[in-house]
Design a protein that fits this description.
The structure is a single chain. This protein has two domains: 124 residues, Rossmann fold; 198 residues, Rossmann fold (3-Layer(aba) Sandwich). By secondary structure, the protein is an alpha/beta fold. The two termini are 27 Å apart. Helices cover 36% and strands 14% of the residues. The protein has a seven-stranded parallel beta sheet, sandwiched between helices. It has a five-stranded parallel beta sheet with strand order 2-1-3-4-5. The structure holds glyoxylic acid (2 copies). The site of one glyoxylic acid has 6 residues, from loops.
Length: 355
């Protein structure tokens, strides 16, 4: 291998490995047992010569790592994730390292988990499962685990990008919910889809679904019965859902987060869940992973899963392949990637090595 590439974790599938080793790459896969690698661990992995790194969202890719990678001759870094709040793209730019992420391949998988959590929360599936396993079921009762009927209710989507739009379509088409969404950009494709679906429902004698693009986020919080968060995490979305905003939501609303933990003020959420037992939440991500804020784990009105929204075999292999292609493409100067879904080959396309 002419080029040395490091992957900080073993990743699913073999396609990504073959891609690299068949293209002049000597690949090193870190098999360190501990889950989260420190900056020091990664500096050791980079060593004296390293052309590119495939890294994970649990790692802190800042000034220190990009300067180390640049000194080792590195030109490319890819996160195996669509989210890149763990990557300081300005620092990467400064050291001439191109940064890639893995959009597109995880859109439906992630939206499906958000939909799963929505249904699980609406129908209290986790509580009911615990009840059953605890041997507490002693016969059918009219009021046992009564939940929410989604049909005709309103689903609210904050951030109608790829994932948010896919989720919105699932909930509207699958469960005949009305949509209210908030995004800085208009989602014309989503609006067209719902309009066409409404026409279809009307023609079949059913109540048509409706959609609305909200002028403010608070409008969504006030009107929706289920709210799913799909923004990117940055300075503008940190604690987007705080104490005041939670207070604006319906007392029996359901809140879903499959984006990034810090989008919600988790301590305020725990307090809100305690005060409002009919309010339910489905969380895939947490403010300080892998930890949960005290009290959260004890609450019956919270469903918690360990950051698995993109965890389908197809998607994880796709993410690994995309991450490998990102790094390989940059090293070899290929025109990057071929998937029409892939709208952002590199987050900082024009990064130049320092003079
Ligand atoms: C996972 O959280 C991702 O951003 O891909
Ligand atoms: C990320 O893929 C998004 O745009 O939702």
């Amino acid at each position: 291998g002419k080029y040395r590439v490091v992957s900080t974790k073993p990743m699913p599938g073999t396609r990504w490995i073959n891609l690299l080793v068949q293209n002049d790459v000597r690949l090193e896969i870190c098999t360190e047992k501990k889950t989260i690698l420190s900056v020091e661990d990664i500096i050791a992995l980079i060593g004296d010569k390293c052309d590119g790194v495939i890294g994970q969202l649990t790692e802190d890719w800042g000034e220190q790592l990009f300067s180390t990678l640049s000194k080792a001759g590195g030109k490319a870094f890819s996160n195996m994730a669509v989210g890149y709040n763990n990557v300081d793209v300005d620092a990467a730019n400064k050291y001439g390292v191109a940064v890639g992420n893995t959009p597109g391949v995880l859109t439906e998988t992630t939206a499906e988990l958000a939909a799963s959590l929505s249904l699980a929360a609406a129908r209290r599936i986790v509580e009911a499962d615990e009840f059953m396993r605890a041997g507490l079921y002693d016969g059918w009762l009219p009021h046992l685990f009564v939940g929410n009927l989604l049909k005709g209710q309103t689903v609210g989507v904050i951030g109608a990008g790829r994932i948010g739009s896919a989720y919105a379509r699932m909930m509207v088409e699958g469960f005949k919910m009305n949509l209210i969404y908030y995004d800085l950009y208009q989602s014309t494709r989503l609006e067209k889809f719902i309009t066409a679906y409404a026409t279809f429902l009307k023609a079949s004698g059913e109540t048509p679904v409706t959609w609305k693009r909200a002028a403010t986020m608070d409008e969504v919080l006030q009107e929706a019965d289920i709210i799913s968060l799909h923004p990117v995490l940055d300075k503008t979305t940190y604690h987007l859902v705080n104490k005041e905003r939670l207070a604006k939501m319906k007392k029996e609303a359901i809140l879903i987060n499959c984006s990034r933990g810090p989008v919600i003020d988790e301590a305020a959420l725990v307090e809100h869940l305690k005060q409002n037992p009919m309010f339910r939440v489905g969380l895939d991500v947490f403010e300080e992973e892998p930890y949960m804020k005290p009290g959260l784990a004890e609450l019956k009105n919270a469903i918690v899963v360990p950051h698995i929204a993109s965890a389908s075999k197809w998607t994880r292999e796709g993410m690994a392949t995309l991450a490998a292609l990102n790094v390989l493409g940059k090293i070899k100067g290929y025109p990057v990637w071929f998937d029409a879904n892939r709208v952002e080959p590199f987050l900082n396309e024009n990064a130049q090595p320092p003079a």
